[in-house]
Design a protein that fits this description.
Number of domains: 2
CATH class of the largest domain: Alpha Beta
Number of strands: 5
Structural class: alpha+beta
Bound molecules: FE2/S2 (inorganic) cluster
Strand content: 15-25%
Helix content: 25-40%
CATH architecture of the largest domain: Roll
Number of helices: 5
Distance between the termini: 35 Å
């Protein structure tokens, strides 16, 4: 076991983990942050996406030992049912959610994009979400949701 110190959703954590433990396992099993989903477990679906120091990353491909000193943001750090983030609300408003399994990862990738580029083009949205697979929606409404979120963020001046 190794001890790792890092920040998750603005809370300092210092925990013991297995040497070969993935960040996805640590988040879900030790920290009970189960909004981050496990799909493929090998970097192909994006369901496990979190931000590490502001960049979207597949947490199934990262060992927890690698995030020493880093800042992690999971979907729980973005918004929840009582207080949905404007990005989550835009997904709802655009009807972009079906089974919902891919949505936490989609929202995290959308957040990382809109933080960097408040008014992304359609190509930039597709590019930013290219690592996030959705089996249900066909992506059109997801792209619309990101565009809508960008507009609302601009109008309201919400800080990401
Ligand atoms: S579970 Fe990590 S990319 Fe699929
Ligand atoms: S809404 Fe079902 S996988 Fe995307």
């Amino acid at each position: 076991m190794i001890t790792v110190k890092f920040e998750v959703n603005n809370i300092e954590r210092e925990i013991e983990v297995r040497d070969n433990e993935t960040l996805l396992e640590t988040l879900r099993e030790r920290l009970k942050l189960i909004g981050t989903k496990e799909g493929c477990g090998k970097g192909e679906c994006g369901a496990c996406t979190v931000m590490i120091d502001g960049k979207p990353v597949a947490s199934c491909l990262v060992l927890t030992g690698q995030v020493e000193g880093k800042s992690i943001v999971t979907i729980e750090g973005i918004g929840d049912v009582e207080n949905p983030h404007v990005i989550q609300q835009s997904y709802i408003d655009e009807g972009a959610i079906q089974c919902g399994f891919c949505i936490p990862g989609m929202v995290v990738s959308s957040y990382a994009l809109l933080k960097e580029k408040p008014e992304p083009s359609e190509e930039e949205i597709k590019d930013a979400l290219s690592g996030n697979l959705c089996r249900c929606t066909g992506y059109r409404k997801i792209i619309a949701a990101v565009k809508t979120a960008g507009k609302k963020i601009k109008e309201t001046g919400v800080e990401l």
